[in-house]
Amino acid sequence: MRMVQEHRGEYPSLWAAIESIAPKIGCVPQTLHDWVKREEIDGGQRDGLTSSERERLKQLERENKELRRANDILKAASAFFAQAELDRRLKS
User: Fold this and answer.
1) pLDDT tens-digit profile of 32-58?
2) Is the C or the N end of the chain the one with fewer CB within 10 Å?
3) Are 43 and 5 in contact (CB under 8 A)?
4) How far apart are CA 62 and CA 18, in angstroms?
5) Cα separations in angstroms, 33 against 9, 23, 27, 70, 72
6) Strand blocks (E) in 14-83
7) 56-81: per-residue pLDDT in tens?
């Protein structure tokens, strides 16, 4: 990514620089472009979620999913025990 930044001015566009440099480092242009964008976002030069913010978001989404699953289990258990209590009262 540093190579792209250093040679960016030698090309008419960022994409032209990326297309020229990508084969030299052994990757496809789109991959290098993604890396450059990520570096610009992390460096505050481009809008978007930083890598740490994206990781935190993923972590919160996983936690949210686990909590929803636990909540569903608790709801099912509550309904089961409520039904069992009703059945017990009806038999008495």
Assistant:
1) 999 999 999 999 999 999 999 999 999
2) C
3) no
4) 35
5) 16, 12, 10, 40, 42
6) none
7) 999 999 999 999 999 999 999 999 99
Which alpha helices (DSSP H) does 8-50 contain, by range? 14-25, 29-42
Are the C-beta atoms of residues 53 and 45 closer than 8 Å to each other? no
Domain boundaries, the chain: 1-48, 49-92
Measured at the CA of 49, the angle between CA 53 and CA 55, to 5 degrees, comes to 30
* Best CA proximity match to 36, nearest among 57, 58, 55, 14: 14
In this predicted structure, what is the pLDDT of residue 90? 84
CATH T-level topology, domain 1-48 = Arc Repressor Mutant, subunit A (1.10.10)
| Predicted local confidence at residue 59, as pLDDT | 98
Q: Of all residues in the chain, what percent are helix, strand and coil, respectively (each to 5)?
A: 85, 0, 15
**CA 45 to CA 34: how far, in whole Å?**
14
